[in-house]
Amino acid sequence: MSTIYDCSRQDSREAGLAAAAGAIRSGRLVVLPTDTLYGIGCDAFDAAAVRSLLSAKGRGPDMPIPVLVGSWTTIDGLVFSVPTQARQLIEAFWPGALSIILQHAPSLNWDLGDTRGTVALRMPLHPVAIELLREVGPMAVSSANRSGYAPATTVADAESQLGDSVSVYLDGGTVDHGVASTIVDLTGPEPRVLREGAVTLAQLSEVLGTQVELA
Question: Where in the numbering of this chain does the YrdC-like domain appear (predicted)?
Fold first, then answer.
């Protein structure tokens, strides 16, 4: 049975965050608001929970799950190295709607799908998401919708698609942007934009000092 918590009320928000943290630590799924869309998430290091997330969305491991973090410094323990371009983008756009793909640290014991040794990282600009992430650590988070269906911009949208596969729904109202994050791959010699979303190519080019194009 799922529970929805109204995060616009302080008492309900505190109860919801506590319930969501407990669910994540128990290997269950939660839906949370972010600055772009609603996300469905779990403990990034719990392989069984990640498989449950993929099953809830109706998709396979060929589309790996990104990881959300609650601070800039968290990524230092998750990746092999943080190149200068990544630091520049983090300083310019985090917290915000930019996902950065880097080589993950080889020592990490996680299974996010067919990542080929990489991980997509983002720090969301949403107080509920940040508070939860700082409580539980890195989370594997994907858009809160069934594969092939419209992304959720309200908790009702998410609940109608995901139902009881999710233990806790955190209702943060209608998300401001309703646009997915931009994805930049920094694992090669040049930045590659795999998806242009809320952060534009022009904004990326300005920060990096070089023309960035869609792959």
Answer: 14-199
